[in-house]
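Following up on my earlier thread - several people asked me to post the actual chain instead of describing it. Fair enough. Here it is, all 332 residues.
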Amino acid sequence: MIHSIASQPTILIADDEEANREYLSMLLDTQGYRTVAAADGTQALEILRSRHLDLALLDVMMPGQTGYAVCSAAKSDPTTRLIPVVLITGLNRSEDRIKGIEAGADDFLSKPVDRAELLARVRSLLRLKNFTDELESAETVLCSLAISIEAKDPYTVGHCDRLSVLAEGLGRRLGLAPDLLIALRRGGIVHDLGKVAVPEHILRKPGKLTPEERRIMEQRPVVGERICAPLKSFRQVLPIIRHHHEKLDGSGYPDGLKGSAIPLTARILSTVDVYDALTTDRPYRKAFSRDDGLEMMLEEARRGWWDPDLIRELELLLPDFEAARVHTGVPF
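Reply from S.P.:
Thanks for posting it. Predicted structure:
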């Protein structure tokens, strides 16, 4: 297997025995892979965090930090968790394998390492890493597109970032599962991706929309869902995109859903979306204060539009949100 320099995968080999490092490096180098070595767990973790790597081969028993500890740390870090990790061990008890699985290991190799088995495992995991990289690239393109669409309107700059942070924070207050928190974070960024199909003169029209213009605007969620549908990693995001303009009384769009038929994640995003719209300057009015914005939302909740419980939870979240904004200087 010969790779071009540009696409040559880089593999970390971590083992406290120099002979083992040299043997694995020799096997992989002859197959066209680049290798980088670490003599202990601490050094291995530093390399994982500072270098672009495609795969890590970690000896289980190392000084400093064990292979289990390095694997667990890498899988807990968003910047390294997608790097496949193979634990190499002379321990063959089932509890040792279970410990490795709990640490997040993607595969295991037993000592002494068999050449054919090593290369087969490496090829398989690098294929999976390549698929993951392609998926990340697609997600990045969609998020970049959403930000560029937002940037065309000076009144919505920063809107997606604010919604992403607020929606995830509100979901966390409600005790939602980690996968739904990720969906809310992503949904905040791409929720209005369907704007790409709306003519700019309609998007920026200060006055009342005509019936035809409103029909076009109300297709945004459907278009956005269609754009994101091919990404399996966005499966939990699609209901947020499609339903964040629904209202509890069924007067929203595009499907006229009522009450609990509207997914909770979509109701969360619509809550923070309405709040951000009210407390941001618009061409036709100045921003409302936090208290006035919340009061208007509660009034609309009494009409049957929004979920009053979510508005109250948002009210409790906002002081921390505002404090973080002041502390970090981020203009959310």
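The first strand starts at residue 10 and ends at 14. That should answer part of your original question.
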